[in-house]
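Review the following:
>
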Amino acid sequence: MKVIIFGGDGFCGWPTSLYLSKLGLDVTIVDNLSRRKIDIDLGINSLTPIATIEERLSTWKTVSGNTINFFNIDIAKQYEKLLDLIKSERPDSIIHFAEQSSAPFSMKNSENKRYTIDNNLNSTNNLLAAIVESGLDIHVVHLGTMGVYGYGDNGMKIPEGYLKIHIKGENNEYFEKEIMYPPNPGSLYHMTKTQDALMFAFYNKNNGIRITDLHQGIVWGTQTKETSMDEKLINRFMYDGDYGTVLNRFIMQSAIGHALTVHGTGGQTRAFININDTVKCLEIAINNPPNNNEKVKIFNQMTETHKIRDLAIMIDKKTGCGIDNIKNPRKESPENDLYVTNKHFLNLGLTPTTLNDNLLDEITNIAKKYILRCDKSKILSNSYWTPGNKP
């Protein structure tokens, strides 16, 4: 099977690329390396040392014997190059990671807001338009987010994408209809993912493109078996206020003796998934494409839910670093519950990796090994959803 991974140099894209290559798939990475440029612009670095893309790919060939091809293309802007690549490579599947992926970054300022909208929506539309123009039957797998649903359960388990409703007609008769679960994005980043879903539905209906949309929870963990094979293959570990996912950020804070910074009460419930389950889910998705003329498949790519304060308490008990409840920079409910259906992946063979001390030790060991690379000034978030959220 031939797979192109757009955004294959990123936090989820890189380990997915190595994992699928190790399975024997013909993998090509397309990336404009914008994530590296964002680090430069923000003055931040991954805690783990990230080799150049050339060094990464050369090292992978040395340790695995497999070749991953790479093309530097900005698919949001370079449509003709994108189209030519698809025509020449003729992939069976395309995995779409090529979007700005941070909610805090998307809300930081007007420049970031416009960049997030321009990049994410144009990337998705250009990709779909190019597939139509190529005339090829390609399965698109997109990494979305649980955040499209908003954070709350409305008294029910959040279904996987679709909801059956009953509408009262003029003669007091009720008609059953299936709709996409109503979106409720909490940031401009999340809003781009809701717009992606509408584009997928349109191109699927109008052009018959086969699409699987994965609504992923917050990723925790850093390494996979493949990224652990050589230090030059190591995955990103972000701990800063813009790109650091909450559990990794907590682990970093505990490693340097910094109190865990909990936004507000910490009563926000979030969905989580381990990075090793992320790459497994991508394998499952590309091996189970929709049939021709089948509607967009929507899977909830998560394995468990936790309140943020419960995670902080768990790590504090383990490390004794303390907890600091700070003013929430986001505009959101201080408390919420979240119940999620994820039966599709479970039925297709996913065995969830759940939080435990051994797995937390893996992250802790990474944090301690590279502790001297930590810039403590980048730990707190300075992205505020509204001016009134500033302390």
Remarks:
- The two ends are 52 Å apart (CA to CA).
- The chain has a mean pLDDT of 94.
- The chain has one domain: 2-389.
